[in-house]
Amino acid sequence: MPRFAANLTMLYNEHAFLDRFAAAAADGFLGVEYLFPYAFPAQEIAARLRDHGLQQVLFNAPPGDWEAGERGLACLPGRESEFRAGFAQALVYAEELDCPRIHVMAGLAPAGAERAALQATYEANLAWAAAQAQSVGREVLIEPINPRDIPGFFLNRQDEAHRTVQAVGAPNLKVQFDLYHCQIVEGDVAMKIRQYLPTGRVGHFQIAGVPMRHEPDLGELHHPYLFDVIDEVALASGWQGWVGCEYRPQRGAVPGGTRDGLGWMRC
Ligand SMILES: O=C(O)C(=O)[C@H](O)CO
Ligand SMILES: [Mg+2]
């Protein structure tokens, strides 16, 4: 089986954020990820990781004004200095949390903007971020996201993400391969794992049941088969990353619900 990390933004919502670390460790997780740590002092989160023997495997750089609907700044001309300041803050947290990967969200394509101009800004920002991250031994990840969950999101497809990584050409810029988004946008998920994992450009996986984003054993994707494919290709290619469990537990509507829905992990 792959190594699974609990996404603490979506799992364990029956607990306050800082208590989700203990809950994930109690269920056997060794790694955690989440979207944003910035509402809490990094030292406080680091203490939770230490106390519960957890590894921080991923979090996101600041996305702009999330409450106002922004979903990243990386492709937005004119927002470069805000992008850089946010990424610098992410690096400070990554140091304190000993986290090897930072996810940079692309952002929403502004209505009427020329795609080529957005792509040029995206690549320039990613090149800058990758250079900053390289100097302190961290990876930058980009993630294609389906346009139903985030209408207007700039990056939707795996091939576009891989082309961007190749165009930037930084060894520590990689793709966050979320199988949930891939199934919704393009399908053929197992073959895409076989296509992309051996390239060395996949930095992380994430999973959820499709289409409702509940537990992986609910919905149209057969995860036991996909886990076997990941294991097989990882073994052949030497890949040693994590699979983030980024779903909203359906059984989480009741106290203890996340744990009740973890049966899929033991199949
Ligand atoms: O939504 C996802 O799939 C993510 O991984 C992002 O980090 C947040 O949008
Ligand atoms: Mg994801």
TrEMBL record:
Sorted alphabetically, which InterPro entries does this protein's record hold?
Answer: HPT_OtnI_isomerases (IPR053398), HyI-like (IPR026040), Sugar_Epim/Isomerase (IPR050417), Xyl_isomerase-like_sf (IPR036237), Xyl_isomerase-like_TIM-brl (IPR013022)
List the Pfam families: AP_endonuc_2
The name this protein goes by in its record: Hydroxypyruvate isomerase family protein
| Active site, UniProt feature | E143 (proton donor/acceptor), E246 (proton donor/acceptor)
Boundaries of every Xylose isomerase-like TIM barrel domain copy? 21-266
Question: Which species is the source of this protein?
Answer: Ideonella alba
Q: Which family does it belong to?
A: Belongs to the hyi family.
Coiled-coil regions in this chain?
A: none
Entry's Gene Ontology molecular function annotations? hydroxypyruvate isomerase activity
Give UniProt keywords alphabetically.
Answer: Isomerase
Is the keyword Phosphoprotein assigned to this protein?
no
* UniProt GO BP: glyoxylate metabolic process
